[in-house]
Amino acid sequence: MTHESAGEPTRIVVVGSGFAGFECARALTRRLRGTDSRITMISAHDYMLYTPLLPEVAGGILDARFVTVPLSEALPNVELVKGNVDSVDFEARTVHVTDCEQGVEDVAWDRVVLTPGSVTRLFDIPGLAEHARGLKTPAEALYFRDQLLTQIELAERDTDPSVADARRTVVVVGASYAGTELTAQLRALADEAAARRNLDPAKIRFLLLDAADKVMPEVGEKLGGKVLDVLRSRGIDVRLETTLTELGPEHVTLDDGTVIPTRTVAWVTGVTASPLIDTLGLPTEKGRLTVRPDLSVEGHPDVFAGGDAAAVPDPKNSGSITPPTAQHAVRQGQALASNVAASLGVGDPKPYSHRDMGLVVDLGPGFAVANPLGIQLSGFLAKVVTRAYHLYAMPNAANRWAVALAYLTDLLFPRPLVSIGLVTDSESRFAAGEGVGAQH
Ligand SMILES: Cc1cc2nc3c(=O)[nH]c(=O)nc-3n(C[C@H](O)[C@H](O)[C@H](O)COP(=O)(O)OP(=O)(O)OC[C@H]3O[C@@H](n4cnc5c(N)ncnc54)[C@H](O)[C@@H]3O)c2cc1C
User: Fold this and answer.
1) Locate the FAD/NAD(P)-binding domain: which residues (predicted)?
2) Cα of 141 to ligand 1 centre, how many Å?
3) Contact 71/47 with Cβ under 8 angstroms?
4) Does 132 reside within a domain?
């Protein structure tokens, strides 16, 4: 017997506090106000991470705290459980949760919303998991800032010029928006460090690689071409149709056989659904949980999913699923709230639909590209639109304030050159379940 029929509050459990889970919980509290229901969010973290600004954390413009929205503040009417959901029992209607001290608990639900997002997709390339780092967490962003500044410092005192050159070489793999933004931000940080040390900035070398034949296919040919020009004008060596075949602690090997001595490698080539999805025993598409147009799971009307973890049919592109973006995750979170509420008799269910709002991509000092509502912008105007968009989209006033002040600081002062060293080597590494070899 469910709690709905036993006269107890209806229990809605949301798994994951990313864009989709956060928006779903926030909208559900409004929709179900006045009903006898209890919303519980279970997440590995006590924050919602605003990932689009991670490159600016790596580049030293923003503090990691500014891009982490505290759940306790933003979702005051939601019960928060910090832990990892390892399995879902669809018969008993429970999720099994393990906390950070290995304490376990079964949490019961009448409706469950699965939004555990994605992890970095790794390929079976020798040395990749050991020697590269991704860009999905604040720890990884801080790692890049610290690593770049530390290697520049060490290089200055190195007596072996070949070791110094390796220390001053950064390889970024993945030239879609996240990898390109990371390269641009780290380049700007390196330029600042070079200026303060009277070092020729060309001595700090950046390679941006991609297996595809263009950068940032998401923004189209014209803006992609402008991005390529800007990257090259900043001395970034962009190599398309190129990837890695092997990595060691002090080098990478490209697929044309070239060996590049380096100690800093970013792997930003894409994501794969959270490992939780594989444990469910439910149908998947490209590793993501198959859902119906109303975001419920076939045969399980009380189970819903959205965001990067779900294969949501794209109504604008028949036969396809929506790409893993924050834009879709936010809207799917809102659709999840409507449809979960409808399943409880509040409002009517609706299939997921969306309108493409375009993309904004910040490329460091004075430059961005953006295509809001299909209008193609680049340069300083795009930069203003990009920063204004992030301030608008940031879902908490205190975070918005902190980011706005950091942007103002960036206008008035140079980037701070500090490697605080808060992140240990193991914290910045790929997690065990990070989808090695999952080539969907
Ligand atoms: C560097 C970077 C830049 C990006 N920039 C943009 C951009 O500019 N525009 C854009 O549209 N998209 C962007 N994206 C993509 C965007 O971040 C994702 O599409 C979006 O975060 C997906 O939201 P989500 O809620 O599905 O998952 P996530 O945001 O990944 O959140 C998943 C949540 O679930 C939690 N979780 C995972 N597994 C479990 C579990 N087993 N138990 C409990 N909790 C769990 C996680 O801790 C996390 O809180 C960017 C991504 C990155 C990495």
Assistant:
1) 11-333
2) 14
3) yes
4) yes
